Amino acid sequence: MLEDLFKMVTTRFNGDEKNEIKEFKCPRCQNGCGADELQKNMWVCPECGYHSRMNARDRIAITCDKGTFREYDKDMQTANPIDFPGYEEKIETMQEKTGLTEAVVTGECTIHGEPCIIGVMDSHFMMASMGSVVGEKITRAFERAAEKKLPLILFTASGGARMQEGLVSLMQMAKTSGAAARLSEAGVLYITVLTDPTTGGVTASFASLGDIIIAEPKVLVGFAGRRVIEGTIKQRLPEDFQSAEFLLENGFVDFICERKSIRRTIAHLIRLHRPPVKDNGAALADSSPADKSPAENKSKTSKEKTVSKENDENMGSNGNASNAGNANNASSANSAGKSDKSEGIFGAHKNKPGKGAGKNG
What we know:
The strands form 2 sheets. Strands 3-4-5-6-7-8-9 form a 7-stranded mixed sheet, with helices on both faces. It has helices spanning 2-14, 35-40, 56-63, 87-98, 132-148, 166-185, 200-203, 226-233, 244-249, 259-272, 280-285, 294-343, and strands at 23-25, 32-34, 70-72, 104-111, 114-121, 152-158, 190-198, 212-215, 255-256. It is α/β, with parallel strands linked by helices. A hairpin with a 2-residue loop joins strand 4 (104-111) and strand 5. It is 45% helix and 13% strand. Mean pLDDT is 80; it is low at 12-19 and 282-361. The longest helix is centred in the C-terminal third of the chain and has 50 residues, at 294-343.
């Protein structure tokens, strides 16, 4: 029995375990289901709704419009900046096991017809730890989004910084945060979707800097682990500490969205924040006299003087009628104003705010 257990642990450590899952056992409710049933349900437990971890390719498949995804920086390879022993072999093993070159996939796509740039972190690749290549690919995604004026959507899942790259890994926090600041200055929408787990340096940098922060239900989000925090502050933490629901209650997350609705929700948010299109006709109508030629301004001035002279001549004979007309117009305007005040622009319901208005109402 011990030999079988040792063989299983050795197989997982060496990365020889097959990616194909024949049967899924939910870690929350212990319910078992087939891989096909789990895939049809978007990798969500049909019994308790547990949102299991997904690889980057499957996430892209259920999020992007079919055939629209174009990957960025696919061939970017990881170096060994501090000559950590066995790091190159570990990277090669993970590349063979996952079919990825690194722990994040970035690219351009459309979601329900809305063009955007997307990045997906894959926890199956060294727990999506943030090394130099992960930081560089995410930074380039920010820069391309700012250049093309396209919304950026990042699905985060990480165990934090990559220890095999030492200080170089920690520097990616500042690098990605600076890129996020430049995207904000460019006025481009940035949405983060927190998936299980999002921890460490990723949480402390670009994951928490989104204009809109979404989380999947009951995912783990935090910086340090529970035991480390409890040992530091010498206090017992709440049972739901670092869960998506706890973060929503305390204002860190804007809202929680189930996986089946995330695609439609992202597209709706992109449409809501789409920059207004300027109408050329309206722009010409609103142009000032200074924008026109001197001949046009002179002609307009002479016409205005003629009309003004005719109005002055008619004031003597038609003054009483004009005053009566003005009084009637004022009376109509007052009555119209009272009507608008009571009913509002969109009807009487406008003056009755909804009872269920929440944080994002």
